[in-house]
Specification:
Chain A: InterPro entries: AAA+_ATPase, ABC_ATPase_HisP-typ, ABC_transporter-like_ATP-bd, ABC_transporter-like_CS, MetN_ABC_transporter-like, P-loop_NTPase. Chain A: This is Amino acid ABC transporter ATP-binding protein. The complex is a heterodimer of chains A (257) and B (317). By secondary structure, chain A is α/β, with parallel strands linked by helices. Chain A has helices at 52-59, 84-89, 106-116, 122-135, 151-163, 181-196, 208-214, 232-237, 242-256; strands at 6-7, 10-23, 26-37, 41-45, 67-72, 75-76, 91-94, 169-173, 201-204, 217-222, 225-230. Chain A has a six-stranded mixed β-sheet, sandwiched between helices. In chain A, strands 1, 2, 3, 5 and 6 form a five-stranded antiparallel β-sheet that branches. In chain A, strand 10 (217-222) and strand 11 form a beta hairpin. In chain A, helix 3 (106-116) packs across helix 4 and helix 3 runs parallel beside helix 5 (151-163). Chain B has three domains: 13-43, no CATH class; 53-83; 106-316, MetI-like fold. Chain B is 79% helix and 0% strand. Chain B has twelve helices and no strands. Chain B has helices at residues 16-32, 34-38, 46-83, 87-94, 97-137, 144-159, 162-175, 185-211, 214-222, 227-257, 269-280, 284-316. The radius of gyration of chain B is 30 Å and the shape is flat. Chain B starts with 15 loop residues before the first helix and ends with a helix. The chains are: A alpha/beta (257), B mainly alpha (317).
């Protein structure tokens, strides 16, 4: 794992500069600039299709940018000579639809990457996985297959799976959007706990309550443009731009219904 | 939504209005005595007992109707066949008991060769099919020639009839007179069947690999697994599980196609039957061979059905 890079006294983990992404001639990202410091939690908000997920997928090199650069710990990962597998080793990602591997148990899901990618021995990988499961209240599910778990449990396992490789940066892509409202709480609980442990995270989320709670920085995306960013108290109470105000007003209205 | 019980629906047991009432009663009971629920003291209601009695009667009626219609159908078919003008002649040439017992040992001995061909060809086909399917998923430019070869292979061998492949391999391969090329007819038959079926099985595997949702691959890659690791640990285990029923179906087909090897000469079941039939101009030995093949393929077919039903159930669960 490479060490932190100091920039102007700050420890910058992720720096996104002027990133563009097109799908079939449609601009999904239009010149995004974003910087994430170590231990910082950044929430991306915005309507569906505003580019939140695409930005996360570009950071994880699941998609390749069409222009611009992305630095991870000062190293340019959008360099065509960079090894995507090596970059992904250092970034954890959690998906909206959990994407657990149905052919493996919970323990198998969590230990796969430590064992096969990071060369950790089976016994140690399993011990660490059990510790994590214990910590997040899933100790009794180690031997279960994903289809026997509730959505909330599956998503918690997916988060643990991403944590098991001790990533430098954790990307969470609308991790509560597929969940029954009654199960959202247990997943948010884990995310709050991660924040407390100082994990560097970027979240795409529709949970404004969560964003207000844990974000150090909230970024509002609209039509592939990062329109406004700032601390949550500013974004949520006195947004500068009419578009941001309009979006927040609509979200709050939907909540009331 | 309006209440569904109108003037049209009589309040027979089980009508929506009734269920509504029962629900209200249950709630009432729950409010009155909450302890009743937790103690699990469920006594079957009269309504439920009546429901089960009606259900049993209906089931009994369906099975008797099925039995009667089957008997009628069989009697009809048998009488049409036996009443046909050519029946005595057909009976003599296809259903001769003496011929049957006479040919049985030879045909059975031949059939053991069919089983042997099948048992050797099957694992080879699985290996070839899986390798070809995997080669087609390789994207690195170095592998272009391999990938092109895999595409060519499946195109050619799926296009050429199996019997032609057997001819070409059986007569063409030894004719090359290359050192080490087997001349044993059964071995050549195995090679031909492997080439022909390998192409089908490769496509079955490829369909299975393609059927695994891309999000699974994305999750694997996001954990840092390489393309090969993602294939081996995440995609392939799911793909193989899904294609077991279609693979078994191909193997049922392979079992009977071992008879095509007869065309190049080894003494398997069909060939033995041919020899007996040529001696006596009686076709009963073919019936022997047919029965032996059926005895082998039916259990396999039922097993395939069972697996398919099981995976259906699992997906529903």
């Amino acid at each position: 794992m490479s060490g932190p890079r100091e920039t102007e006294g700050r420890d910058v983990v992720l720096r996104v500069e002027n990133v563009w992404k097109n799908y079939h001639g449609h601009h999904v990202l239009r010149g995004i600039d974003l910087s994430v410091d170590s231990h910082e939690v950044v929430c991306l908000i915005g309507a569906s299709g505003s580019g939140k997920s695409t930005l996360l997928r570009c950071v994880n090199l699941l998609e390749f940018v069409d222009d611009g650069v992305i630095h991870l710990d000062g190293e340019e990962i959008t360099d065509v000579r960079a090894d995507p597998d090596d970059v992904r080793k250092r970034i954890g990602m959690v998906f909206q639809s959990y994407n657990l591997f149905p052919s493996m148990t919970v323990l198998g899901n969590i230990t796969l990457a430590p064992r096969k990618v990071h060369g950790v021995g089976r016994a140690r990988a399993e011990e660490e996985a059990r510790e994590l499961l214990e910590r997040f209240g899933l100790a009794d599910k180690a031997g279960a297959y994903p289809d026997r778990l509730s959505g909330g449990q599956q998503q918690r396992v997916a988060i643990i799976r991403a944590l098991a490789t001790r990533p430098r940066l954790l990307l969470l892509d609308e991790v509560t959007s597929a969940l029954d409202p009654a199960l959202v709480g247990e997943v948010l609980e884990i995310i709050r706990e991660l924040k407390a442990t100082g994990m560097t995270m970027v979240l795409a989320t529709h949970e404004m309550g969560l964003a207000r709670d844990i974000a150090d920085k909230v970024c509002f995306l609209d039509g592939g443009v990062l329109l406004e960013q700032g601390p949550p108290e500013q974004i949520f109470t006195e947004p500068r731009l009419p578009r941001t105000r309009e979006f927040l007003r609509r979200v709050l209205e939907a909540r009331r219904v | 939504m309006t209440h569904p019980s109108g003037g049209g629906t009589a309040d027979a047991p089980g009508s929506p209005a009734d269920a509504y009432g029962a629900l209200a009663d249950a709630y009432g009971a729950l409010a009155d005595a909450p302890g009743d629920y937790s103690e699990g003291g469920w006594v079957k209601s009269d309504r439920q007992r009546e429901r089960e009695r009606l259900r049993r009667r209906r089931d009994l009626r369906s099975s008797s109707v099925a039995t009667v219609s089957t008997v009628v159908f069989v009697v009809l078919v048998v009488s049409v066949v036996t009443a046909s003008p050519g029946w005595p002649r057909v009976k003599e040439t296809f259903f001769d008991l003496g011929q049957f017992t006479g040919a049985f040992p030879d045909v059975l001995a031949g059939f053991l060769l069919n089983i042997k061909i099948f048992l050797i060809a099957e694992p080879l086909i699985l290996v070839v099919g899986l390798l070809v399917a995997l080669v087609r998923t390789l994207h690195a430019p170095v592998f272009f020639p391999l990938r092109a070869l895999a595409v060519l292979y499946t195109d050619v061998f799926r296009g050429v009839p199996t019997i032609l492949v057997i001819y070409l391999v059986g007569f063409g391969l030894p004719a090359l007179e290359i050192q080490g090329v087997p001349s044993d007819l059964a071995t050549l038959g195995v090679i031909a069947l492997t080439l022909s079926y390998g192409a089908y099985v490769a496509e079955v595997f490829r369909a299975g690999i393609d059927s695994v949702h891309p999000s699974q691959r994305a999750a694997a890659r996001s954990l840092g697994l390489t393309q090969g690791q993602a294939m081996r640990f995440v995609v392939l285990p799911q793909a193989v599980r899904r294609v077991v029923p279609p693979l078994l179906n191909d193997f049922v087909s392979l079992q009977k196609d071992t008879a095509l090897v007869a065309t190049i000469g080894p003494l398997e079941a069909l060939r033995q039957a041919q020899i007996h039939a040529a001696d006596t101009f009686n076709y009963t030995p073919y019936l022997v061979a047919a029965l032996l093949f059926i005895a082998l393929t039916i259990p396999m077919a039922r097993f395939t059905d069972y697996l398919a039903a099981r995976s259906q159930r699992r997906r529903g669960a």
